[in-house]
Amino acid sequence: MELTSVYKVKEWMIQQIKNGDLHDGEQLPSHLAIARKLNVKTDDVYDAIDELITEQVLSNNLEEGASVKSLHPFSYPLGELVSISKMIEEQGYSAGTEFISFDEKPATSLDSQKLNLPEKAYVTIIERIRMADRIPMVYCLDKVPTSILTCAQYQSSDESILNAIEQNASQKVAYAETEIEAISYEPHISDVLDASPHEGLMLLKLIHYDKDDQPIFYSFNYFKSSLVKFKTVRNRI
Length: 237
Description:
CATH topology of the largest domain: Chorismate lyase
Radius of gyration: 23 Å
Strand content: 25-35%
CATH class of the largest domain: Alpha Beta
Largest sheet: 6 strands, antiparallel
CATH superfamily of the largest domain: Chorismate lyase-like
């Protein structure tokens, strides 16, 4: 079967990226320059670029045009309960935490529903930013019943909520129910993450359970979409 001109353009761009002649984030040559170099029509170049944008090899900025899609330095496995620190350190970065606030407040009706709490129960609220080489990467808001973990207990721990719960309450998280939501812009969170209004966030909402299916704590983790991608394995049933 004869290869099409669109295929020719696509393969040329892919090889340019693999060979390092086009770098992450770099603008593409003009459509006309590519067409002349490969002896194809400019319409073929447009079609090839559109296909590579769909396949996420290229990205498109309406003001600047197409460019090589920047790679995500971090990959978070959705099928495992892996700490954010471990994900950062496995890529050769230094993991750090910037704490925003600690508090113990009465549980709202939503808190009580998610954590199966009685009336007048209190929750420990921990707000922090997870850093990679001092670069803000994830905004975390965690809520834990104070009967399981107090602010003082957490502050004397190694900064891992999972470890602090095991040490102070002798409870262990067995699994987490996770929801994923794309957030285009959230003023407060985007600001503390140094994310521009054009940069999307990926929100992971997690409720952590013990082996008896009792909720232990829940979290809101906002990841900068420019830095982190998610992966999982899906089995056919």
